[in-house]
Design brief:
Chain A: Its EC number is 1.3.1.1, 1.3.98.1. Chain A: Its cofactor is FMN. The complex is a heterodimer of chains A (425) and B (457). Chain A is built from 13 helices and 20 strands. With 425 residues, chain A is α/β, with parallel strands linked by helices. Chain A is globular, with a radius of gyration of 25 Å. The mean pLDDT of chain A is 95. Chain B has three domains: 102 residues, Alpha-helical ferredoxin (Fumarate Reductase Iron-sulfur Protein, Chain B, domain 2); 164 residues, FAD/NAD(P)-binding domain (3-Layer(bba) Sandwich); 145 residues, FAD/NAD(P)-binding domain (3-Layer(bba) Sandwich), CATH 3.50.50. Chain B has 17 helices and 16 strands. Chain B is globular and about 70 Å long. Classes of the chains: A alpha/beta (425), B alpha/beta (457). At the A-B interface, α10 of A face α2, α4 and α5 of B. The complex binds flavin-adenine dinucleotide, flavin mononucleotide (FMN) and iron/sulfur cluster. Flavin mononucleotide binds next to β4, β6 and α9 of chain A.
Chain lengths: 425, 457
């Protein structure tokens, strides 16, 4: 069996699955249940000055029969007294010494306040700290969370203040509500961060009730934007992890999150450069027990791939992630429809005909059966038909020969060539 | 009336095709769609409804996540014959019957998903379990049906040395020789047995306890004995003409379609099957597949009282089997060659309820009539292995061995599981219950043996 032990900037855990700072990690009772279920670590619900929460708080976007395709919340940080959280952290750490407990922190951008909370939380025995510069609602209106996290200088400054006193590794949790996350990631590293984590939630409004015209969710008829997470945000999070992993100057471990629902997304995040993953929505949807398949599935996957430990997985796809300008312009794939598997729903046909390149023909074979065939020369290899196809194995995207006379060439190489040609004239 | 259709013929290829598995497997697309439809209930009723307590939501979630090995392990961990059960369990009565989606939409296809995951393991030659560190405890199991095999697998996981004694040529009990191959192909049973043999369990086939080895020898050589011998042949009808050629025992008859011989050629024949349980349906559907021209199930009560499941009834109807309700055989007619040439029956009606609450069928006077048949198959239950039970000196009621909640029998260190403890009036015996009992006996034995070791050490 593969070794799943994890090390994120010196924070060790028996497996890479941590609960993200959120309702699942609100109390000692919950975190202990989570460790019992198999979670490797938990980032405690963000601690700071006491706040007041509203009712209601959550809403979900259901799509295609899936109850929770995306999840939205207007909850703030922990509403429990700091002393209570610290006492429970201490107790949980004593009961589960092998599991990682990370204290998530958020205070005003004030050096003394940061110093004080870091010292108090570390005294409770946490294995590391996570600075919450990501919460997009409520706290942001008070100059905290993503209001800090959107200003690289504030990220650098506050991280540096924390590092002045912290004795455990410091993770800086970044907000996705920003044009280019690598700017704030770099600022965190400059401030001395030992790791970065991403993503916190994305500004969102789940919906509008078409009878009452209230927002969803609403508090006595009034709404405010919330933060979006769950399966729907995975591609956004995965890109942000990939961008940070490949950008020079962000050479610290990444704790990845945003839409991790099973071992498969976890493996994807790790291939894209994350040292581990954090999970919130999937646990809120199904309970702590989902970690069992996350561990089992990842372990079976690694055995199948012949990988002994996570470092053989982490970051393997990063070198394959680059800029559009570095992609080969003359490389070609084309769709191939396997008519023996095809169920003739014709979804590929209409998708290509109406919205792509009109290269699928509806024909009859010798026996008069309906078949679909791709005109390979006209196919641009966009993947659309294979995406809309509901049947496994009915459409393959296969590599085809370059067009006659074509050599491999990227856009950047082409520009270079043209520039050279211009200067030679 | 005679065997006037005896010149009809059916080819081996046709027979093989007729006896190939009927239900097709789920495609990957279907399996993934179906598994994503599962609500992943907490404290799910389907788990409670499975006699072996498979964590069904978990194995289905693993199909959805593409963790097929994990899925197969979850199934086989709880049920050592989980690949067979995926095919033969009456799921409407068990897991699928308990699914919360009944009435909402359609219940999840738990049996088919279970088959999907275990098929994957079989196809990919997965080894799912290992024997535990070896203890010096020896356990004998008599009978290698699902009950004996399940006990053996669990005992081997604890590291005990297990020897199974099996009278038959090949192990597997009724899974191997009883349940029809078009529902349970022999390869599936063999895979489950291989998994167990690979864990170091010894199976001594062609070794009948009481003939090739005595109970005393077992008692001397083993720390505990599990009796998992199942049941015996189908009892006689006790009527005139029963000695005619063309009168078969349903269990033997089905067996002839599973031992590779297809020794009973029914091409063009007319068949009457007597009884309306699982075995009757199996014998009837085997008859059609052996080329019979017409097959009737003859039952003295009505459709409401038959013990075959609704899905079996549907299956039989689709096979073109005719049902003769409220009909009881009285005499088998023979021709000059001593062959069956007809079945005399009497019409019945339902009278007063008897002890088990079922209305007793009573003959209607002067209603006798002849059925034109050349084969009669009796499928009226199975006899109890009284001799075997007596040989071990076990207490029993009418051949049903008496056991306590941990499956301990009256003799010390003797346990009994499976059909040998299956009481009458409980509907139909099931593979899945036999397997669970085997597991439970194994846990009791392990506890006893470990306690003994600790006391000694
Ligand atoms: C035709 C038929 C169809 C069925 N269909 C279904 C179905 O669809 N679904 C379902 O759940 N159940 C079905 N059943 C019931 C199911 O097969 C049994 O409940 C189950 O096999 C019982 O398991 P067992 O291990 O107790 O006994 P068995 O499977 O009967 O195994 C007993 C074994 O012990 C061996 N043995 C007996 N005496 C000795 C001895 N003295 N020494 C050594 N070995 C001995 C026998 O050779 C045999 O291999 C069916 C039964 C029949 C007959
Ligand atoms: C209800 C709710 C409350 C949250 N509270 C916090 C918080 O206090 N601190 C924090 O850093 N992140 C908080 N988050 C964000 C999560 O930690 C996580 O970054 C995000 O949900 C993405 O992961 P997911 O897709 O697995 O849910 C919260 C998320 C939710 C849904
Ligand atoms: S989950 Fe339901 S019951 Fe529990 S706090 Fe929320 S609204 Fe109340």
């Amino acid at each position: 069996m593969a070794d799943l032990t994890t090390n994120v900037a010196g924070i060790r855990s028996p497996n890479p699955f941590w609960l993200a700072s959120a309702p699942p990690t609100n109390s000692g009772y919950q975190v202990q249940r989570a460790f019992e279920a198999g979670w490797g670590g938990a980032v405690w619900k963000t601690m700071g000055d006491p706040i007041l929460n509203v009712s209601s708080r959550f809403s979900a976007v259901s799509f295609g029969g899936n109850q929770v395709a995306g999840f939205n919340n207007i909850e703030l940080i922990s509403d429990r007294p700091l002393e209570v959280n610290l006492r429970e952290i201490e107790e949980t750490k004593r009961l589960y010494p092998e599991h990682a407990i990370i204290g998530s922190l958020m205070v005003e951008p004030d050096r003394d306040k940061w110093h004080e909370i870091v010292k108090r939380v570390e005294a409770a025995g946490v294995d590391g700290l996570e600075l919450n510069f990501g919460c997009p609602h409520g706290m942001a209106e008070r100059g905290m969370g993503s209001a800090s996290g959107q200003v690289p200088e504030l990220v650098r400054q506050q991280t540096a203040w924390v590092k002045e006193v912290a004795r455990t590794p410091v993770i800086v949790k970044l907000t996705p509500n920003i044009t280019d996350i690598t700017f704030t990631a770099k600022a965190a590293v400059e401030g001395g961060a030992d790791a970065v984590s991403m993503i916190n939630t994305i500004n969102s409004l789940s919906g509008v009730d078409l009878d009452s015209w209230n927002t969803i969710p609403n508090v006595d008829g009034k709404g405010a934007h919330g933060g979006y997470c769950g399966p729907a945000v995975k591609p956004i999070a995965l890109n942000m992890v990939g961008e940070c992993a490949r950008t020079p100057g962000i050479d610290v471990p990444i704790s990845g999150m945003g839409g991790v629902s099973s071992w498969q997304e976890a493996a994807e995040f790790m291939l894209m450069g994350a040292s581990n993953v954090q999970v919130c929505t999937a646990a809120m949807h199904h309970g702590f027990r989902i970690v069992e398949d996350m561990i089992d599935g990842l372990s079976n996957y690694m055995d199948e791939k012949g990988l002994a430990s996570l470092d053989q997985l982490i970051g393997q796809t990063v070198p394959k992630y680059s800029d559009w300008g570095d992609l080969d312009l003359t490389y070609r794939v084309a769709a191939k429809i396997n008519n023996d598997v095809c169920i003739n729903c014709n979804k590929c046909y209409i998708a290509c005909e109406d919205t792509s390149h009109q290269c699928i023909d509806m024909l009859k074979d010798e026996d008069g059966n309906d078949i679909l065939r791709v005109r390979e020369d006209d196919c641009v290899g966009c993947n659309l038909c294979s995406i809309v196809c509901p049947v496994d194995g009915a459409i393959d995207m296969v590599e085809v020969a370059r067009k006659v006379g074509d050599e491999p060439m990227t856009w950047n190489e082409r520009q270079q060539l043209m520039a050279n040609a211009g200067s030679n004239q | 009336m005679s065997n006037h259709r005896s010149d009809a013929w059916i080819s081996t290829e046709q027979l093989q095709e007729n006896f190939a598995e009927v239900n097709s497997p789920l495609s990957t697309t279907h399996a993934v769609k179906e598994s994503n439809r599962c609500l992943f209930c907490y404290d799910a009723p389907c788990i409670q409804a499975c006699p072996t307590g498979i964590d069904i939501p978990s194995f289905i979630k693993k199909i959805a996540s593409g963790n097929l090995k994990g899925s197969a392990v979850t199934i086989m961990d709880a049920n050592p014959v989980g690949a067979s059960c995926a095919r033969v369990c009456p799921t409407e009565e068990l897991c699928e019957g308990a699914c919360v989606l009944n009435g909402e939409s359609e219940p999840i296809m738990i049996g088919d998903l279970q088959r999907y995951a275990t098929d994957w393991a079989i196809r990919n030659e997965q080894v799912l379990f290992e024997a535990g560190p070896s203890t010096s405890k020896h356990i004998a199991i008599v009978g290698s049906g699902p009950a004996g095999l399940a006990a053996a697998r669990e005992l081997a996981r604890f590291g005990h040395q297990v020897t199974i004694f099996e009278a038959d040529d090949e192990p597997g009990g009724l899974n191997r020789y009883g349940i029809v191959s078009f529902r349970l192909p022999v390869d599936i049973v063999k895979w489950e047995i291989d998994q167990i043999v690979n864990m170091g369990v010894t199976i001594r086939t062609n070794t009948a306890v009481g003939k090739d080895i005595s109970p005393e020898e077992l008692r001397e050589q083993f720390d505990s004995i599990i009796i998992a011998v199942g049941m015996g042949s189908v009892p006689e009808l006790h009527m005139e003409g029963e000695d005619a050629s063309g009168v078969y025992d349903a269990v033997d008859f089905v067996r002839s379609t599973k031992d590779g011989t297809f020794s009973r050629n029914l091409a063009g024949k007319r068949v009457a099957v007597i009884g309306a349980g699982n075995t009757a349906v199996d014998a009837a559907t085997c008859s059609t597949r052996l080329g019979a021209e017409h097959v009737s199930i003859v039952y003295r009560r009505t459709k409401n009282e038959m013990t075959a499941y609704p899905f079996e009834f549907e299956f039989a109807k689709q096979d073109g089997i005719a049902f003769q309700w409220l009909t009881s055989p009285v005499k088998i007619e023979k021709n000059d060659h001593g062959e069956v040439s007809g079945l005399e029956c009497v019409q019945m009606e339902l009278g007063e309820a008897d002890q088990d609450g079922r209305q007793r069928p009573v003959p209607i006077q002067n209603s006798n009539f002849m059925m034109d048949v050349d084969v009669v198959i009796r499928a009226i239950g199975q006899e109890r292995l009284q001799d075997t039970i007596a040989m071990f000196g076990l207490e029993h009621t009418d051949g049903v061995v008496t056991v306590d909640a941990s499956y301990a029998a009256s003799e010390p260190n003797h346990f009994a599981v499976g059909d040998v403890v299956f009481g009458s009036g409980q509907g139909e015996a099931m593979v899945v219950s036999a397997a669970e009992q085997g597991k439970q006996a194994a846990y009791t034995i392990h506890q006893q043996l470990s306690a003994g070791t600790q006391a000694a050490g």
